[in-house]
Amino acid sequence: MEAEKEHWDIEIKPRGSNFSLNLKEVWQYRDLLQMYVRRDIVTIYKQTVLGPLWFIIQPLFTTVMYMFVFGNIAQIPTDGLPQALFYLSGILCWSYFSDCMGKASGTFLGNAGVFSKVYFPRLVVPISSVISNLVRLAIQLILFLAVYFYFLNAGANIQPNLYILLFPLLVLMMAGLGLGFGIIISSVTTKYRDMAILFGFVTGLWMYVTPVIYPLSVMKEKYEEYMWIIQLNPLTSIVETLRYGFMGAGTFDWFWLGYSFVITIIVLVLGSWVFNKVERSFIDVV
């Protein structure tokens, strides 16, 4: 008798290309992805007094500190925008990007015990952190909108426009950059642990070449010789586009936004190549 053809729900095959994120396989493990997302959301502030309120308290205190140090002491202008709105918009972007990158950068070292015991697409872990961070972004966006409408009703010089519709694209770009850079860092630090110190130092400096605490117009006016550094930063156009769309102030340029989009794609492709290459042998290294 002819043997019956076997049917398998999931087949584990050798990876064909190192450049593939293999999202089809990640989708097959969507239940596991949901579990990781739920775990990240529940455990981040488990056994804390204020719980999710920290999502609001942290940006609020940071904004107040920026207003005092950079707005009042350093007297850095904010393009005519209310200081609270200006700093909150920058914090909103930087927090989501840095959180995505920070969590994704610990993928291999933080999950070596699980990875060595059972197979599942390793990208489930960093992707879950990007999705779970959307909860924090949503809460902080509500805070930003509350302050935004307060100043709008108070008659502040705020001029929202159609570019506000680019916000979902900006979120996707921040998520892509955070995921891409995060899995690159995770792959490199698997073998070279001391590189984690270097990347931490670079990340701390990265915020200061991103227009979070100053407008791009100030750099053009006073520090034009350093503008190339800031404009090559893919986060620059993202932050400036968000401010321009919501408040009508800042610098918006389709060319630089397109540049940031292309860099996002390149970082994701490069990150997937490095991640897939390290994934095959990292257990022996860790």
Helices and strands, with pairings:
Layout: H1 23-28, H2 30-43, H3 54-73, H4 83-104, H5 107-110, H6 112-115, H7 124-153, H8 167-191, H9 195-206, H10 216-222, H11 227-232, H12 234-247, H13 254-279, H14 282-285
Pick out its properties.
286 residues, mainly alpha
Characterise this structure.
The chain is mainly α. The protein has 14 helices and no strands. The chain has helices at 23-28, 30-43, 54-73, 83-104, 107-110, 112-115, 124-153, 167-191, 195-206, 216-222, 227-232, 234-247, 254-279, 282-285. The termini are far apart. The mean pLDDT is 84.
Quick synopsis:
The protein has helices at 23-28, 30-43, 54-73, 83-104, 107-110, 112-115, 124-153, 167-191, 195-206, 216-222, 227-232, 234-247, 254-279, 282-285.
Strand content: under 5%
Alpha-carbon Rg, integer:
21 Å
Distance between the termini: 49 Å
Largest sheet: none
- How many helix segments? 14
